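retry 2 of 3: previous attempt timed out while embedding 4-nitrophenyl phosphate. Reduced batch size to 1 and resubmitted. Inputs unchanged:
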Amino acid sequence: MNNKETTKILFVCLGNICRSPAAQGIMQKKIDQAGLQDKFELDSAGLYGGHAGELPDHRMRIHAQRRGYILEHRSRPVKESDFFDFDIIVAMDDSNYHQLKRLAPTSESEGKIVRMTDYITGFPGYHSVPDPYYEGASGFELVLDMLEEGCDEMLRRL
Ligand code: 4NP
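retry 2 succeeded.
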């Protein structure tokens, strides 16, 4: 997608304790398995800063660990420099997407913002990765299923 050595991807959700750190962990594992560690740099961030410094939600950590993903990211809020530092900014849902579009400081940085569901085809009727925070176990499993498919497809396209 560009001539640089590495592609930097930022995954964004609301709290940065469920969906986006899971996306980061899943994508990192797929990159590691493909031997592409030198080609990508990943991070995640949230549009709500109230969980800053926290590990991912314990429910997400447990569900992810069962699939072999160890989530150790510390939540942090999106910051203006992210729009310059990253090549692709991946929003988990419509609200995240529109909020990021409003925050983007330049039209070039606005063009970096995509939806996670642009890469997910196997879940008809879902136009966003749903917030699992107030859901039960099935909500977390659904998010992980969607993110595994989306990360596979994103890596394939890159
Ligand atoms: P996430 O889930 O956006 O996938 O990290 C949420 C976590 C916390 C809150 C909302 C969503 N919250 O409002 O505290």
